[in-house]
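Annotated sample (chain length 508).
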Amino acid sequence: MHQYNIVGYARVSSREQAENCHALEQQIDRLKSAGVEYVFVDVESGANPERLNYNKLIQLVEKGAIKMVIATRWDRLTRNELVYLQLKNLFQYSAVKLKLLDQGDVDLNSAFGELSADMQALFAVHERRMLKERVSRGFEYKRKKKSAWGRQPWGYKSENEKYVIDRSRIICLLSQRPYNYQELSDLPDNSSLLVQGLSKGEIAKEAIEYFLKVRKARDVLRYLYEKYGVSSKANNNNLLLTSQLLFWRSGQSFCEWIKNPVLRGHTAYNKYEPRNAQKRGNQKPPEEWEIHENTHPDERMLSDEEYCEVVTIIEQNSRTMGTMKTRSQLTGLIICGECGSKCINKNNQIYRYYGCRNSGIGCSNKKQIRVDLLEAKLFDFIIEKAHQFNGVDSVSQVIENPEDSSVVIKLKEQKQSLEKMLQDHYNLTIKKAINDLDLQIKKEISHSEIDDFSLATAAEVLVYPYITHLGFWYCLNTQERELIYHKLIKKIVVLDSQVTTIELKVSG
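Output written by the structure step:
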């Protein structure tokens, strides 16, 4: 365990303070000037005791790995009275010294020093309470004035406490550049001869119109990513806090955005439950929001009629999710070989497919694989793997051999009789009857054992006597296949409509 002589602790309550006001940078500079060897930093509320680096610091103090802790003030360490008491006890019973640059050395070993620390901490708690009151009063003031509140939705910005469409030009498409663009390179950006580019507001309106046309949120994202050349893999920043052209990362995020009242010219308040010291409260249902209508009617992107259509489309899409006539028995087992995401089931009128959920949105693995072809490949792989387990004791020791049932014996006798007739005189009807009997036999075998498969291990399933019969697999229904698949298969990797890797849950 590394030993420190002097460490520092710096904290600000928000990312904006850290990046824009330089408050965090100033704290760190003061601490380093005071001689600290290492600075623990958090961007969290002082009332939150679950700060990552704060808790790391406390653990080192408890272990005696630190001789002195320096911070600028008590409120940088905590604004919570209960946490202060715990912190005071910790420093009282440890050999670690505490120094506050704005309040001097902290002496917790004398009555007067402890009283001084208590008063300083009490003022920090009081300041937090006053801050909450100021924020609350500010919120009420803005609510009465119907001012813009909180973060602006994508495509908007706040001017004079009102929502306005963001018309700042941020991107020019190559397809829109003039034919003689090389001759215009020396012109100023605001020249009328140059293409002025597109704004977030224009692209947001384009996204709305395209959604009303294609009626699928993911199709909108695919269209935007392809048209504007943005990769989802690079979209790690908060698109609300950046001037870059970044889009929504999921269809759900897009749907939440397009239903925002701001897009219809309204302002919403009281969208969240009261927060506690640890985290922000959960969002309330939209019907419980306090909505002030027509606060910026000239800055609407979405009419009331369009909004009604948007809600109808989203509800229809949510109702059709997961209501396929056939179950997706391989869902959760198939992995995209390009981006590593789990593939999803897709249908057309004839076939079912699996494809990457990020296909066309940052992932180049756009080709899908037909389920029937995938399963054929899977059957061959499992049968080949099962042959490698021939030396393992048969599961028939655990599961009664289905061939001994009277139904199977009778069907086999009928099959043998037809096979003799076929030898004497070939007939398509007899051939079809034999095939039907063979399927019935395999079906009886699979149905008689499906309950026992639910209790069997992956190895027991793999050495089951009929697992190497191709007909056995085609006799299984969807539920039975799903049971065996999830018993045996760890993952299936697909790339460019081909199976590249199959991993089972057994070795050998």
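Annotation: The radius of gyration is 34 Å.
Annotation: Residues 4-143 form a domain with the Rossmann fold fold (CATH 3.40.50.1390).
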